[in-house]
Amino acid sequence: MKFLVDAQLPHRLSLQLRALGHDAVHTLDLPLGNRTPDAELNRLSMREERVLITKDTDFVDSLIVKGVPHKLLLVATGNIPNAELERLFLRNLETLITGFADHVFIEIDREAIRFHF
């Protein structure tokens, strides 16, 4: 699967996804790094059919109103240590991948995975 990891999430997450055989790009890998505008992240997600992984709820509005990004994984954990976030994500990775076969928007927090649409 192809992922685009937003700035609020650890770069290490994209490295772990790559190690598992996925195509993962973090905003730090882009020319403007973590200053890459949301509009550019949406364009990249659409152009390369990437799941945007973010904590930024503005992308939910963008998805509902404009139909971008391509697919969205909203991380709704609040403040959480990076190691715990990575464990949560990787522990649920197969469920998320399977879910994206039928859904465009998935939300994950410490307690549940919610498949929205």
Please, could you describe this protein's structure?
The chain has 117 residues and is α/β, with parallel strands linked by helices. The protein has one domain. It has five helices and six strands; from the N terminus they run E-H-E-H-E-H-E-H-H-E-E. The chain has helices at residues 11-19, 38-48, 58-66, 82-91, 93-99, and strands at 2-5, 23-26, 51-54, 71-75, 105-108, 113-115. A six-stranded mixed sheet has the order 2-1-3-4-5-6, with helices on both faces.
Number of helices: 5
Shape: globular
Based on secondary structure, the structural category is alpha/beta
Describe the main β-sheet briefly: 6 strands, mixed
Cα distance, first to last residue?
Answer: 19 Å
Number of domains: 1
Report Rg: 13 Å
Per DSSP, what share of the residues sits in E-state strands of 2 or more residues?
15-25%
User: Spans with pLDDT under 50 lasting ≥5 residues?
Assistant: none
How are the elements arranged and paired?
Layout: E1 2-5, H1 11-19, E2 23-26, H2 38-48, E3 51-54, H3 58-66, E4 71-75, H4 82-91, H5 93-99, E5 105-108, E6 113-115
Parallel strand pairs: 1-2, 1-3, 3-4, 4-5
Antiparallel strand pairs: 5-6
Provide the descriptors you would attach to this structure in a database record:
117 residues; alpha/beta; 6-stranded mixed beta sheet; 5 helices; 39% helix; globular
Would you kindly provide a brief summary of this structure?
The chain has five helices and six strands.
